[in-house]
What we know:
The structure holds two protein chains of two kinds. Chain A has helices at residues 12-25, 38-47, 64-71, 91-99, 112-123; strands spanning 3-8, 29-35, 52-55, 82-86, 104-107. In chain A, helix 1 (12-25) links the parallel strand 1 (3-8) and strand 2 (29-35). Chain A is of the alpha/beta class. A five-stranded parallel sheet of chain A has the order 2-1-3-4-5, with helices on both faces. Chain B contains five helices and seven strands; from the N terminus they run H-E-E-E-H-H-H-E-E-H-E-E. In chain B, helix 1 packs across helix 4 (85-105). The interface between A and B is medium-sized, with 23 and 29 residues.
Amino acid sequence: MALNILVVDDSNTVRAVIAKTLKLTGVPINELLEAANGREALQILQDHWVDLIFSDINMPVMGGVEMIQQMKQDDVLKTIPVIVVSTEGSATRIEQLKAQGVRAYIRKPFTPELVRAVVLDIIGETDGAQ
Amino acid sequence: MEPNNTEILFEVVSGVLEAQAFMFADAAEKGDIPPRDGEYYQAKMTFVGPFRGTMALTVPMEMCTEMAANVLGLDMDDEQAEEGAQDALKELLNVACGQVLTELAGEEPVFDLTVPAVTVMDDETWDALTHDENVAAMLVDERPLLTGLWIEES
């Protein structure tokens, strides 16, 4: 199944790096969508079906935590797995995010291998490359 | 700043620079930093948690373009690398700041970080940085990189 993936980060460079990393992982991608903050992401989610979201936490306008909280208010959006990609290393923060429904946490800088493993784990496929 | 804080700054920033942008830094004494030549960018962000403060990175503009080119896998003269120069510096600071805070405070405390902002460095600020005990200096292919961490007294 090819995935529709939404990448949410205020940095064009980071969005480009995540997009490039996803392509390197070999994970089948149908459509790669981008948003510069949580509000833009919620708007995109109104018009597009998305299978997986990669999101930063600290962003202007609307951060990742507020975006996730708003997604939880919607019966459809709350089912979309969110992977947080952030610089923060606090175990407490990671637990808080997981308690709010975040499926996985990837700390920057990351490798394509880690991203692939996390995505395959979420979509329930085994990694035939290993 | 404790002397080993500048060591932490060097270890973290040089490590992130290597991992993200494939660039290698050597530690330097601030007195050995070559005179300012050309325009510099400074990225700065603040953090609030068990303690609060500011972290900054200051580098020549053309080094930011090289960082962006390396991060994105582009040639230096690619328009996208030039456009991404400030973004690449902000991201380097963002990642380094998260790692420095973990080094200083461990993995339990929660810090709120601001979004990094970039300004063009003026001569006065550059001179102040080169005399600031909170600043660590390094050289990347003979080009200076200054990184500072200012922790406020609680």
